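Appendix B, record 7
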Amino acid sequence: MTPPPLRRFLAAGTGVAMAAVMTACATQPSPEVAVRTFLLDWQAGEYEAAARQTTGDVEEVADSLERAHRQLDLAALRFGLGRIRQNGKGATAEFEVQADLGIGDPVWKYTGEMSLGRGAGGWKIAWSPSVIHPELGEGERLAVSYDVPDRGEIFDRNHEPLVSEDELIAFGVVPAELDGMKEGVGALAKVLGEDPDPMLDRVRSAPPEEFQPLALLRKKDVKESVVRKAKKISGVETTELTMPLTPTMASGVIGEVAGTAEHNVSSRVVSTYQAGDTVGLNGLQNVFQQRLAGSATTEVVTVNQKGEQTGVLKSWPGTQSGSLTTTLDSTAQGVAATSLAQLPGAGYLVALDARTGEVLAAAGNPDDLGNDGAFTKEYEPGEAFTIVSAAAALESGAAKPSATVPCEPETKVGDRTFATPNNGGLWEPNFTRDFAFACTTAFAGLGEGVGGAALESAAADFGIDGDWRLSVPTYNGEFTAPESAGDTAAAMVGQDQVTVSPLSMALVAGAVADGSWRAPRLVRDTDQGEPGASHDLPKETVKQLREMMRAAVVEGGASRANLGTVPVHGQAASVKQDVGGKETAVQWFVGYQGNVAFAVVAEVDPAMEWDQYAISAGSGFLQNLPYGYVEDPGATADGDAGGAASGGAGTPGVPGV
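Structure tokens (predicted):
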């Protein structure tokens, strides 16, 4: 009797129950029972039991079924019973196959077919390789082939590559030439210091005569002894190739690409990974891994005894890798890195186009792959925060630019005492001069008149502690609402109640330069994770802040940065704080020239804090930008470097004060 055409997948529990029934039967009374028993045993890995349901030699059939499982390196195998057509002493049975090719690979689904005959021993399956797959012939085996696209490139805004081509050595194997697969791959893994399991996964299902790259090493880092040891292993080969892996600049932003043995990738990558793949571990390389790496075209193929491919049973097209264009400008980034190289310790410089929020440079010293501090490092801003607190004082009516605001060497607010950095004061001080010289006591004294609520509102207007984000990690700052007069005074001068990053302070400067606070952008050709929010600031407040920031450069604490015909506006500060468990003088220079807004941070030994490292680095950055750059940042420049200082006042769009 032909069963109804309902495809019932054989669950593991069904297999146990049915196996008990079938074991009791020496012969199979119907083709359905014979097919069920065969599929259940095959699915459970009971290959000899399955082979006994066929007309073939038990050992040969069992070996064929087991080898097919190994050849595909299956994670799971499930069958579903299809139609059975009986014709006298013969029958034909269809069955559905779901072959899970493993993590990261597809599930191969196809319809199989087998013929049966009835003899004295009951119904048996007529064995041939076509039982495994209808197109598998005598002397053929199955294999899985991968065609991996080259990794995509990362470009700056002018399509200059930000990742260099590395010369690599690929270590791999030709499976058919291994004395023993597990032993040979294990020996190679030991030489390279890698986990052998991902390598074995790749090799088991590979075409036996094709070279399978399993690990990549940068050629310059490979010792001859490693190559010699590897080549002594039967079946191991090496080949040389080039691949874009190493950032040419902005290493902490671009990120690290793994795929080389020195990364020990298998122990560091959580997502799907096959030996020989390239994987972005951090930065843009990680965030845009799928886009940059694409995905392999996977094929299940048949291979003859010579190792030659004879057919394609199933193909899953991969996705082509793509490039990524950032807002970074190689020119600005290079100048920023050079400017920071003169610092005695760690430091950061972020520059952006104030008109758009696009990041032009994000440099760190040292320029290490894991150093993304330009976006993520947390600092107290000290008096650099007076750009924000001055806006709060102006908008609340607590002070006006020309109003007299005492700047004493020391003042007490609530239960806290504040002093100017040099323990000196100002004669005939007004609010603009207090700002220009970053007078701690003047701003602390204004705290009670400004109020915590107004200060918190101003911080929010400048994006501090906001919900903006880039596609890579950022620290957006944190502002804790003050609960006492002393806390409000501390917040006014950027202590205790507020922390920021270099990026968040560059955005503060950009808001003054443009008149609107704009969320930052790092990637030009996608909106992934980078909403371009913006809001206008009060026009009169912006005008007054520009005048005060200009005064700081003309006559105040940032006077060393008074260069060029395009006016520089800024604020400088130095604040002692704990950095990595060590007391450090953190110097700031925050400002803008033309349409380039910036923030510079320098970590300095407190004994050296009187040297103005942050201002020097910022001045060097502005001086060495190409001619006219500050008016149209990021555009391709034909002029020589060093022309920013002669950029020309009065250019449209450039503030003239």
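Remarks on this record: The radius of gyration is 35 Å. The longest strand covers residues 107-119.
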